[in-house]
Design brief:
8 helices, 331 residues, 34% helix, alpha/beta, Rossmann fold, six-stranded mixed sheet
Length: 331
């Protein structure tokens, strides 16, 4: 082979080698792209941010007054935003488990409310050891905190005082102060949370229309913030001096309806004795104690990560068992 031909052959071989390298690399990349696309398509939704565990408190009530109930027999169906959700586990809450609870007393309630301080103080003293209690009064201007969250149950019980019983002490509306109180749960540990609101439930801050359970903006905000913090609100209806003086059955019905909605949509319970002040808190406190004793923590896999309000529907498939739970939550 002549030297010239050898040189030409070497140049040709180098040209072929150089031209093949990028195509080979591109071919590998092209082959990898479908593989990546296939991986994305087959990756389970639950591995991404589209599913997360959600825990909510469930109140259990066994019809017929059966004293014993085994949690393993509880059969529930959970729907969120109309779609079935997978239950991960149901955890019983011991009657000796501590609870974080706020006691809110409206300051312009009728004078008969003064008779209920003693039984309410005894209720606080009987809470499980390690419970945290805050005592505050809902009044004009701001929330009057008599006792910040404390584990000293005797100290919390002694913080209760007789309501002022004056129209001048009336709050702008009770739900503004409920909103203020709910923020104080942010500094507390997670676990069982509740609020006991003793109030007339009347919101006239934006005129007669705002007294309606469906029209009160602050009521709706309070429900949303309680759901966000997993706080079950229990309400005792006691008329205020203002509501008594108005003597308007329609306003009283709206006020009670507002408390009913507040409790129903946060997993609590509203307790009334007609449209007047209760003769005694004793049956209310017994009912509250039983509700707190019969609680479970339900954890399910939520498939709705988007921000906003998510509606929850839970159905008991266990005969003779009724349940209470929050109407939803906001994230």
């Amino acid at each position: 082979m002549t030297r010239g031909r050898s040189l030409l052959l070497l140049v040709a071989l180098l040209s072929v080698s150089l031209t093949q390298m990028p195509f080979s690399s591109a071919g590998r990349a092209a082959a990898q792209e479908p593989a990546r696309d296939q991986e994305k398509a087959t990756r389970p939704e639950s591995q991404g941010p589209s599913a997360r565990p959600m825990t909510i408190p469930i109140g259990i009530r066994v019809r017929g007054g059966k004293p014993e109930f085994e949690i393993r027999t509880l059969d529930l169906n959970v729907n969120e935003d109309g779609e079935p959700q997978t239950i991960l586990y149901i955890r019983p809450v011991s009657t000796t488990s501590p609870i974080t609870i706020q006691i809110l007393f409206q300051d312009d309630l009728v004078n008969t409310a003064a008779n209920e301080i003693k039984p309410l103080a005894e209720f606080i003293r009987q809470l499980p050891k390690g419970s945290r209690v805050m005592v505050a009064y809902v009044r004009s201007g701001t929330l009057d905190v008599r006792q910040k969250f404390t584990q000293d149950l005797e100290k919390a019980a002694n913080a209760l005082r007789i309501p002022m019983g004056l129209a001048s002490a009336a709050p702008y509306n009770p739900y503004v102060e409920v909103l203020e109180a709910l923020k104080r749960f942010d500094s507390q540990p997670s676990g069982r949370r509740a609020m006991l609101l003793v109030s007339d439930g009347l919101d006239l801050s934006r005129g007669i229309d705002s007294s309606s359970p469906a029209q009160s903006l602050d009521l709706q905000r309070a429900i949303g913030q309680a759901q966000k913090r997993s706080v079950a609100i229990y309400s005792f209806f006691v008329p205020s001096v203002t509501l008594n003086n108005l003597n308007n059955q329609a306003l009283t019905a709206n006020a009670q309806g507002s408390l009913q909605r507040l409790s129903d949509e946060t997993g609590g319970k509203a307790l009334f004795q007609g449209t007047s002040a209760p003769v005694s808190f004793d049956p209310f406190l017994r009912d509250l104690g039983e509700s707190l004793d019969r609680q479970v923590a339900l954890t399910y896999l939520s498939t709705h990560p988007r921000k906003g309000f998510h509606k929850i529907q839970i159905r008991s498939l266990t005969p003779g068992v009724d349940i209470s739970y929050p109407a939803g939550y906001s994230n």
